[in-house]
Amino acid sequence: MDWVGIHEQICQLLLPVRTPLPFKSLCKEREHQQAQLLQRQKHLIELTQAAARKKLCEGRHEEAVPAAMQCLRYSIEVHGLSTLPLILPYLLLAEASIGTGHLLQAEEYLSQAQWTVLKRSECSRSILHKLHRNLGLLYTAKGEFDNALQHLGNDIYYASEEFGTDSIVTSGGYFHMANVFFQQSKMDVADSLYTKVTDIWSTRLSRLVQSPSQSPSLPSASSASPDEALDEAQEAEAAQMLNAIFDIREQAQKQDPAALASASCALAMLCYLRKDLDRAQELGRKALSASQWGADPGFTESIVRFLQRIRAGENLPVPQRAPGSPREPQRAPESQGQLLSAESRQGPEQHNQGYSRAKIHN
Amino acid sequence: MSTLPAMPQHVGFLPSITSQTSNPSPAQQQLPNSRSWIHKKDKDIGPSHGLGEKPKQPELSKLEIAVYKNSHKHNICVNMLREGYHKSFSELFALIQKWNTSREAAGPGSAIWQEEPLEKQPDKLDQLQHFLTRAEAAQRAGRYEEMYTNQLSLANYFNNSDDKWLSHHFFESCLHTSKLVKDGGQKEAEAHSNMGKVYMEQGQLEKAAEHYEVFHHLTLGLAWKDKAGRTHNSWGCESLWRIYTLLADKMLENKKHEQAIKTLIKAFEMAKEVGDKKIEGEAAYCVGLAYHRCGDPETATTYLNMFMEISTALGDSNGLGKAFEAMAKALESQGKITESVKYLEKFIQVAKSSDQSRSLQDACMCLGVIYNNRGQYDKGCKYFEMASTIAMNLGDLQLLEKAQVYIGIGKAHQMTTFSSHIEATGHVNMERVLAWKNSRNDMFNDPSAVCSKLYPSS
Description:
Chain A is an all-alpha fold. Helix content of chain A is about 75%, strand content about 0%.
């Protein structure tokens, strides 16, 4: 586990850090040595943090633990105990623990993080919102819904102050809060929140779908700027949330066509961006049929245009690397996209068991 | 985990998260939003200890700690979110942001810079929380009428507290909600009327007119009444009349005469629908004046006649006076001087009886000028003298001076015989002129004043 987790990546880097340094007589040389060591340690911290985050987003909580532990260890060495940079590793460890079901451990880590935050008054809102989100998830896992709601409320408040009420970062908070209400069987509140999450992601994804990089021939009315493109962690989070919402809408006792249509459409757009065109088309058709029951002809039209775009995208020439499948992966991200989409299909089963597992976008 | 430090045990500030907190159900019913609630709890615990004991620490739940630590805005936002009212949260957040942005845009030194920020005014935040959450609950349950009522309460609250931008915002929300209420359009009509009022207050007459037109259209033929018992339709017509008159005034100022007349005629139609004769009369008067200003005195006289009839029927002497004056002017521009004079005299009578000094003074001056122009200088002078007495009573120096100048002009014109005598330059004429100079009596027409020596006039 450790090897797969992190040592595969950092083994080589650990060598110069762990071996005791040779004695240098000149002060300048000693200082240079120290500076080099510090730099290597910082590099290690970044690497382990990124690796841990990636594993968490992919749902591989157990593998994330060694990476997060290494990150914590080196952060303590570089920055010392009870300092702000330690909060992120603690949060990563807590998340991994919640994911693997070790709630007590998660509680310990979170209380440590909370203590550090309380001692320092200049904590950024970004860190505060992540802390509260993790606390919310912990209490949800423990079944203490009131506390969970309190912390998720704080999460949404801080995220809104930092990123705005309609940002994809805040949408995570809404999603987890909706899950809590769902478990409390307050369906109207949960529905309203799921709709909000779907809307936020639909807006962002439709801007990305229309951006020049995706469809250079089509005019982009309100396209996304290049820095709005989603990174892997955000994509994974979106996949998790939208799949869950889609399943809930599909399996709802009282079918709401408009809600199902928008959920399908959002998920279809995400699949399209991840180059999973088959699934995108299937979901697009579902969205179209659901939207025809609704009262918004403009929405139906936009789905039709989207389906046309998918078909146009499928007709693009693809270099044949291997015989057989018509849609071979062109480059690595696509294969990852397919892999991720396969994983996201497994998502519904995971989510049906409970909503305690969560991927936090860091 | 040997590197983790020992958890501090004695801190009352950081509650243990492993123990079950006390059930906050009373808190849920009445969420503590203010620190005074905490202090009250503190006092409730009170000095129940003996002399040597330390006072017991008040047991605070997490919620109470949060109330104490965080700002009022933070607490309200989190409370709204805890109960699932995320739309109320988004709206409140957006309003606070909007205020802050406009403050930044206005810059230091502007009026808004000195004002207290919205997020620091707890009463307003409380009101917003109360009504927004109820509106959202109603929306979720599909009870749009209740949602409308809550939004209207907020709009009226902020109207009374002079936060016009907030009340405008909520009136707009009322309009959107009213379209979802299925009551045959009554709420929608009300909402349009409110929006019209808002735009009128802001001076945006065109937008106000649009809203009132929709209101009028929706209330046509229906018997909805407002709280005072007045039909919505009549109120709509009156508001439209008022707006059209104001719009026309602006157009007249910008010399857009045709448009102004069209608008005033629309105003007149509206006024007729109201069913109030006084308003109808006023509208006719405005139209008449406009036609006169644009150079069409005939049509002006028609409308002014209408106004006159209405004023006579209502016994409105003010109105009647205005009518006579306007008629006289219109007739004068048409060249019908005798009739004009007739109306002016009527005007003077009415003005005398109703004690309207200024209009009376105006009327006298007009008459005086007319008589002067016609050569009836004595009558002209008589009226100018009346005018100057009134001006003296009014204490208006300008009017007085003007009247006096006209008296001088009139009197000068009266001295035509004097000038003819000067021109004649005969002895008799000179004698006459000298006699007049001595006695200042009008002896030119009096043959007995001629001196004994009769000289043949040349």
